[in-house]
Amino acid sequence: MSFDDLSAELELRKQQSLYRSRRTLQTAQQPIVQVEGREFLAFCSNDYLGLANHPEVIRSFQQAANKYGVGGGASHLVNGHSQAHHELEEALAEFTGRPKALLFSTGYMANIGAVNALLDKRDAIFQDRLNHASLLDAGLLSGARFQRYLHNDADSLDKKLAKTDARRHLVVTDGVFSMDGDVADLPALSSVCKKHQAWLMVDDAHGFGCLGQQGGGCAEYFAMPNDDLQVLVGTLGKGFGTAGAFVAGSDALIDTLVQHARTYIYTTSMPPAVAAATLTSLRLLKEETWRRDKLTQLIKQFRQGCSELGLTLIDSPTPIQPIMIGESSKAMQISKILEDDGIYISAIRPPTVPQGGARLRVTLSAAHTEEQVNRLLHALEKVS
Ligand SMILES: *Cc1c(COP(=O)(O)O)cnc(C)c1O
């Protein structure tokens, strides 16, 4: 059997400017990176607080590696649940103000595991149409009746919830939308959930560390009562600068996940040193409020500059600041010109975003300087 039809499909993808390829990074996550031998000023990392390469985080990782070795060794329920994992779970529960938190190896797995431990074909799931792929996949895999409501539109959700007679209803949303940077309207969504007795699950992968006085994400940003947001997911590979994810919630929720979440039960625990490093990054994330202040300043500077250049942005208060382009080919072309100028920003194209919604997904970090943002604006002036 030949692979000719695969090759034809790949060729078509290239012609449509939808072909994806990787770049090899030769440095740590930081504003100035070396990529395949060339230096770039990067605006595409999710290391929003500049913690991925922080000396204290690295030191905790090294010390824990000396103590625990490298591999997790087994799943949490066999003998892979180390003291380091346990301490991090307790710290995350305290940080989010919930009785319990449970670690997963990735955010993708946390979402698949949580949704599938809670729902089956007797149930119904309601998702924002711009939710992250891992949430959509989680819903599809569960076999629950699947509905998508209009982006961040509580009325659209209300209408859909009114028409269901399923056993359980789970409403799922990104906290900060990963490709748009806007924040889910949690108070409105929560009030609709209460009206229809639905659970609310929020995946705040991009909110933790960035939103809220203490970096507590969109829950803190809106001062949401804990009981109004029943399933809270955070990932550790973005603002926290490490790797992995967690689900926080009630004792009954977390116990159910331990019993039934297959992506928790049938996988090796994350390396204990990652958990130890995350414990340190959690402390820095909470204490070093200057990182959020710095982000706020850079976001303001960037948005003001773009507005002067007539560029189209999304109404986003977060470090995710996409410049809307439209056509995939044009987004690729601009990204290439910026690259020739030494600036690295990735073009995001369908199906990651809707048709005609190609964009340059600019992300800012507390590690960037004002001068670096000026350099970006200067480069954008040439292509706008
Ligand atoms: C990145 C992301 C994930 C996946 O998290 P990983 O830990 O990288 O697997 C899940 N949800 C959202 C909203 C994300 O942006």
Question: What's the short story on this structure?
Answer:
This protein is of the alpha/beta class. It has helices at residues 4-15, 55-68, 76-80, 83-96, 107-118, 133-142, 154-162, 186-195, 217-221, 251-260, 262-265, 272-287, 290-309, 328-340, 370-383, and strands at 32-35, 38-42, 100-104, 124-128, 145-149, 169-174, 199-203, 231-235, 245-249, 320-326, 343-344, 347-348, 358-363. The protein is globular, with a radius of gyration of 21 Å.
What characteristics describe this protein?
single chain, 384 residues, alpha/beta, Aspartate Aminotransferase, domain 1, Aspartate Aminotransferase, domain 2, 2 domains, seven-stranded mixed beta sheet, three-stranded mixed beta sheet, 44% helix, globular, binds pyridoxal-5'-phosphate, transferase, 8-amino-7-oxononanoate synthase activity, acyltransferase, AONS_Archaea/Proteobacteria, EC 2.3.1.47
What does the model show?
- With 384 residues, this protein is of the alpha/beta class.
- It folds into two domains: 14-43 and 289-383, Aspartate Aminotransferase, domain 1 (Alpha-Beta Complex), CATH 3.90.1150.10; 55-287, Type I PLP-dependent aspartate aminotransferase-like (Major domain) (Aspartate Aminotransferase, domain 2).
- It is 44% helix and 16% strand.
- The protein has 15 helices and 13 strands.
- It has helices spanning 4-15, 55-68, 76-80, 83-96, 107-118, 133-142, 154-162, 186-195, 217-221, 251-260, 262-265, 272-287, 290-309, 328-340, 370-383, and strands at residues 32-35, 38-42, 100-104, 124-128, 145-149, 169-174, 199-203, 231-235, 245-249, 320-326, 343-344, 347-348, 358-363.
- The protein has a seven-stranded mixed β-sheet with strand order 3-9-8-7-6-4-5, sandwiched between helices. A three-stranded mixed β-sheet has the order 1-2-11. Strands 10-13-12 form a three-stranded antiparallel β-sheet, covered by helices on one side.
- Helix 4 (83-96) packs parallel to helix 12 and helix 5 packs parallel to helix 6 (133-142).
- It is globular, with a radius of gyration of 21 Å.
- The mean pLDDT is 97.
- The structure holds pyridoxal-5'-phosphate.
